[in-house]
Write a structure and sequence with these properties.
Serine Threonine Protein Phosphatase 5, Tetratricopeptide repeat, 2 domains, 9 helices, 0% strand, elongated, Ankyrin repeat domain-containing protein, Ankyrin_rpt-contain_sf, SecEffector_AnkRepeat
């Protein structure tokens, strides 16, 4: 999140920035440092990897996610699944109309956020094939 350091490294030129990779933007995206992501997108060519986008979704970094999709295009199916598993309802709501594919059975495992489960169940009940018992237990525990 230290944009001044990123700018300084960039200003040093070769060989200081010779090893720059997508990892810088990936980490900035995952940690929600929109100002760094925007600067890197404007000043560097490495871009963001699909895994970096997925991690930003899992972390619920919605402003970063919105920027990355405006810049680099459609979300991967993994992006919305990561947001679901991360319990990031705002990211799930934003991604849902943009990502057609949910992973088959995303609700069957690793989904422990009642708000996300209720939201998904209301819109995509087919995702809950085997999750009925888990969902009922979670719902009872959180009330």
């Amino acid at each position: 999140g230290h944009l001044s350091v990123v700018e300084w490294l960039h200003a040093q030129g070769e060989p200081t920035v010779a090893g720059c990779t997508r990892a810088a933007m990936d980490r900035a995206a995952e940690n929600g440092h929109l100002h760094v992501v925007e600067w890197l997108a404007a000043n560097r060519n490495e871009g963001c990897s699909p895994e970096g986008v997925d991690r930003a979704c899992a972390a619920g970094r919605l402003p970063v996610v919105e920027f990355l999709f405006s810049r680099y295009g459609e979300p991967s199916p993994a992006a919305i699944n990561q947001a679901c598993r991360g319990g990031k309802l705002a990211a799930v709501e934003w991604l849902a109309p943009r990502a057609e594919a949910f992973e088959e059975g995303v609700a069957d495992r690793e989904l422990d956020d009642l708000r996300v489960m209720e939201w998904l169940h209301a819109r995509r009940p087919a995702l809950f094939r085997r999750a009925r018992v888990h969902w009922s237990a979670l719902r009872a525990a959180q009330r």
